[in-house]
Amino acid sequence: MAFELDDEHETAEKVRTWLRENASTLLTGIAVGLAGIFGWNWWQDSQREHRITASTQFAALAQAAGAANLESASALSASLAAEFSDTGYATLARLHIADMQVGTGDLAAARTELAAAAAAKDPAVAGLAAIRLARLDLVAGEPQAALDRLATVPAAYAGITEQIRGDALLALERPDEARAAYREALTRLDATGGPQREILQRKLAALGESAPASATPEA
Asked: DSSP secondary-structure letter at 21?
């Protein structure tokens, strides 16, 4: 029994000695662990605040764009590009600014904004920018450049890209291919395609082809 007590006493003493010798290391480890937890929470809160601020600035930009205030919208876009380039708002801001610049006739500036937006990581946004650049290519009398650009656009935009392809092919005096592109664009639109469908039908009619009219629901 005495041996057992001695063993217990010796074990307890060893534990106390180990704790004294390693107290600093233990406390440091605990501190680091807590710092990691608090740091992660702080980072998440910081990121959330970052996105909220970007969203607020973008909303202000959209309001300025609605009021045709290019100067104010451009300043907000520059701020988003400088401080919030890691968010999608910076790229969407460029699309807004490009639209406004096209409206004022500054196509060169619009191209610059759209080229930057077309380099976005989000393929949906990049594709939209590429489509708008292709339209500007056509306006500039560069149909082949438009065709080359449209080749990079995601298939989800086929209804739009096929119509622009048709316009580019027609400008290149390739009417048969243009007709096929317009037909493909029509197939991508539902029966309620509205004005867009009517435009395609008129383009096909101009090429000597009657496009099927949209179905009329029965009463």
From this structure: H
CA angle (106, 110, 111) in 5-degree steps = 120
Q: How far apart are CA 10 and CA 131, in angstroms?
A: 80
The C-alpha angle 119, 106, 103, rounded to 5 degrees, equals 95
Amino acid identity, position 217: P
Report which residue type is found at 156: A
The pTM score is 0.71
What domains, with CATH codes, occur in the chain? 55-60+68-121 (no CATH), 123-209 (1.25.40)
Cβ burial of 76 (10 Å; 0-12, 13-18, 19+) is buried
* pLDDT tens track for 89-128: 899 899 999 999 999 999 999 999 999 999 988 898 899 9
CA distances from 212 to 50, 128, 170, 196 (A): 51, 28, 21, 14
Q: Any idea which residue has 């029509």 for tokens? A: 186
The set of residues, in sequence order, having a beta carbon less than 8 Å from that of 141 and lying 6+ positions away, is 171
**Contact criterion met (CB below 8 Å) for 98 and 114:** yes
